[in-house]
Amino acid sequence: MITLYDLPSRFEDPNPTYSPFVGRVKLALQHKGLPFTTHWIEYSEITAKAKEIGAPPTSIRPDGSPLYTVPFIFDSETNLAVSDSFLIVKYLDRTYPKSGPTLIPAGTDVLQNLFALDTAMAPLLPLYTFLRASIFHKLSPSMQEAYVKLGPPFDTQAHLKLGKEELKELWTRMEAALGRIDGAMGERNTLVAEKQPTFADAALWANLHVIKLVVGTNSEEWTAITSTWHNGRWGKYLSWLESYGQIDTI
Ligand SMILES: N[C@@H](CCC(=O)N[C@@H](CS)C(=O)NCC(=O)O)C(=O)O
What we know:
This protein is 48% helix and 9% strand.
């Protein structure tokens, strides 16, 4: 059995995962049909837990010390711990080649990794402060304390301070970023492999999931994204990705 380490939140959604990096691994596990359990840990517990199970750091802090991040997984079948969303998905493909689709088909590694790092992140960037402030209020006090110290400083009330026009402008920029992806996809329904999901799809899905958590499924914004923008492509795309495994046609 695989254990996935994730961060707890208070979002009222069956899938309260707000880290886009954990989200993509969660969807990848679902797509590959691999059973897993989630172990919730706070920011303050990441380093100790990763060291305890043997999950490596994913980068180096400015002071030269190792940085441990979620997601990481422990697989009791192989007794191995793996960190970093891209490396975890590569591990799943390699270890369970017959389970579900190959999420990183040969020869697509570099482009999929870059897509996940850059293009898939682009729709989130205009809303960065708004999203961070909104997420902050869905965390426990001890999680909030750690969350404000991650990345560039932000105003925890930013989501309330943005004017209507300012917000509208940010959503327009997000629509444009998604529009670039829509334009590149053209008539295609998926990003890499026709009729089956890949790591790139999971990465884009996870980013849109964060937006959904923050604005809520009944909001005007979510309705626009899923039903109006780009001829309703994203609503169909997200439902297909979420139901993949049960329904495998698009
Ligand atoms: N390259 C890593 C990035 C993971 C990452 O940045 N995770 C964040 C949560 S969204 C984290 O654990 N941050 C803890 C910290 O920076 O101390 C991946 O793809 O898994």
